Amino acid sequence: MRVHIVVFDGMDDLDVVGPFSVLGMAGRAGLGVSVRLASATGQAQATTLGGLPLFPGPWAPEDADVLVVPGGGFASGGPATGVRATGVRAEIADGRVPRALAAAVRPDLVLASVCTGALLLAAAGLVEGRPCTTHHRAVDDLVAAGGRHVDARVVDDGDLVTAGGVTSGLDLALWLVERFQGREAAERVQRGLEYERREPLWLAGGAAA
Known about the structure:
Layout (H helix, E strand, L loop, with lengths): L1 E5 L6 H16 L5 E5 L7 E2 L5 E2 L11 E4 L17 H8 L1 H9 L5 E5 L2 H7 L7 E2 L6 H6 L3 E2 L4 E3 L3 E4 L4 H14 L1 H11 L7 E3 L3 E2 L1
């Protein structure tokens, strides 16, 4: 499983670092997982909301099995607040990341999001009528964008996998390891992290696990 995490200025720190840590550990354990950071806009450095500098590689979605889109900066901003747009809101306004995500779609690619990263997928036209989730403060925006909100920690609708707020990125990444590499692989990583996955997990067809 080859995972590229999309990075941009103003993303939430844990939305990126959480999945990267899980997937990186899976890779180091020899479980057939690789992960890297990628920029859809060509920037050489992206800085998280907390000030952490990250250095992404080139945009190459054709070389990925999964694209993970973090959130950050959406729930607390917007025109009505008078707060300058950052993170997801800024990238939606700019338009380049949503366009790159829309152009990346192919039959064997999974698009995934953490927290308000789902709103970037929505801006790319990728959640219309689809079961999905996001941070609780952005649910109304997700529904307004055409998503069918499911109250679950992780929602797997085949080629669209979304997770709730912030720490759910850990659960998303563990689920991706399980889905692609098997339950034993995911449990091995979970033990290494000393983390207990939170439920529920919603699967396509309406089943909850």
